[in-house]
Amino acid sequence: MDAASLVRTTIAASLMLVVFSLGLRSSVGDARYLFDRPGLLVRSVLAMSVVMPLLVLWLVTTFDLRPPVKIALFALSISPVPPFLPGKQLKLTQSGGYTYGLLLASALFAIVLVPLTMAWVGARAAEGAHVSAGDVLSIVTLSVLLPLGVGMAVRRYSPGLAARIEPWSSRLGLLLLVFGFIPIVIAQWPSIRALIGDGTLLAIVAFTALGLAVGHLLGGPEPDDRSVLALATAARHPSVALAVAAATFPDQTLVPAAVLLALVVGVLASAPYVAWRKRIKHAGEVGGPSDSPQPR
User: Fold this and answer.
1) To bridge 170 with a disulfide, which of 21, 74, 143, 216 should be the other Cys (CB 3.0-4.6 Å)?
2) CA angle 181-135-174, nearest 5°?
3) What are the residue ranges in the chain where pLDDT is below 50?
4) What is d(CA 51, CA 67) in angstroms, rounded to the nearest whole number?
5) Are 254 and 195 in contact (CB under 8 A)?
6) pTM, to two decimals
7) Is residue 113 part of a domain?
8) pLDDT for position 289
9) Residue at 289 is within a domain
10) What is the per-residue pLDDT across 235-292, written as a single tens digit (0 to 9) for each?
11) Range of the domain at 164
């Protein structure tokens, strides 16, 4: 196994461990959470899979951006929740049901919605632009559905074991993610530098801001739901985005660097929103809820 294969394997293993640890903390009720709340489910799908892609399509066609940046941003806008995001979302909510439910639901819907969206775009803009449901299915199964399901099964049938191994699984997954991420940044750094300029950073910040705004506005009356959906709409699964780009524009070799740059800048650009929502959550915990729970 060469160095590049080792890094890819490390990243894949780390993401599986992170999601497995989430499964160790969740239940079947969490998996059904969104499907038991059709109003919230519709708003979530609308925010992530309809409004955000349309806004990003307007963004990349209106402004003079480099082709790899345009492809990366649109591919990210139609991708599901990334496996590493729920850890951040759980810090902004008192109940993890929506976080776990959104991770699962977005992965399932992506199997159908990503190919359909690319077929729609291909029919109007890029001849032959398509991605198969099988490509998306293989990615979301290995990175989300399988590890989440195994973790939930362990918790259901052996809760004591789940409680013991969850902290270690989570720490090891994050550690491997860091060790796998650093070589990729180093290897892609020349390509990343080549993309900086001509409005690239501004476009990524705009992408993040649009996602946060759309998710926050469509999250409904519950503050926690708004926080969770805002982050999910602004941050997407990089592997699905790369698969979409590779299947539709294989000649664009700088797209992986653009996706990586979007992830890094997106984390920094969303930091003020995360800090704001943490302050609101802390104020609510100290002062108590000011309103009774509202229907979703």
Assistant:
1) 21
2) 25
3) 289-295
4) 22
5) yes
6) 0.88
7) yes
8) 47
9) no
10) 999 989 998 888 888 888 899 999 999 999 999 999 999 999 998 887 776 665 444 4
11) 3-282
The total number of structural domains in the chain stands at: 1
Q: What are the Cα distances from residue 50, in Å, to 100, 140, 294?
A: 21, 20, 25
In this predicted structure, what is the pLDDT of residue 159? 94
How far is it, in rounded angstroms, from Cα 211 to Cα 203?
Answer: 12
Q: What is the CATH number of the domain that holds 190?
A: 1.20.1530.20
3-state per-residue secondary structure call for the chain: CCHHHHHHHHHHHHHHHHHHHHHHHCCHHHHCCCCCCHHHHHHHHHHHHHHHHHHHHHHHHHCCCCHHHHHHHHHHHCCCCCCCCHHHHHCCCCCCHHHHHHHHHHHHHHHHHHHHHHHHHHHHCCCCCCCCHHHHHHHHHHHHHHHHHHHHHHHHHCHHHHHHHHHHHHHHHHHHHHHHHHHHHHHHHHHHHHHCCCCHHHHHHHHHHHHHHHHHHHCCCCHHHHHHHHHHHHCCCHHHHHHHHHHHCCCCCCHHHHHHHHHHHHHHHHHHHHHHHHHHHHHHHHHCCCCCCCCC
Q: Is the dihedral of CA 24, 31, 273, 210 positive or negative?
A: positive
**CA-to-CA dists, residue 220 to 37, 227, 261, 277, angstroms:** 12, 10, 31, 15
75 occurs within a structural domain: yes
Interacting residues of 250 by C-beta distance below 8 A, sequence separation 6+: none
pLDDT of residue 291: 42
CB 228 within 8 A of CB 102: yes
Which pLDDT score, from 0 to 100, does residue 198 have? 82
Q: Is residue 293 part of a domain?
A: no
Both structure tokens of 253 = 């070799």
CA dihedral 124, 253, 53, 226 (to 10 degrees): 170
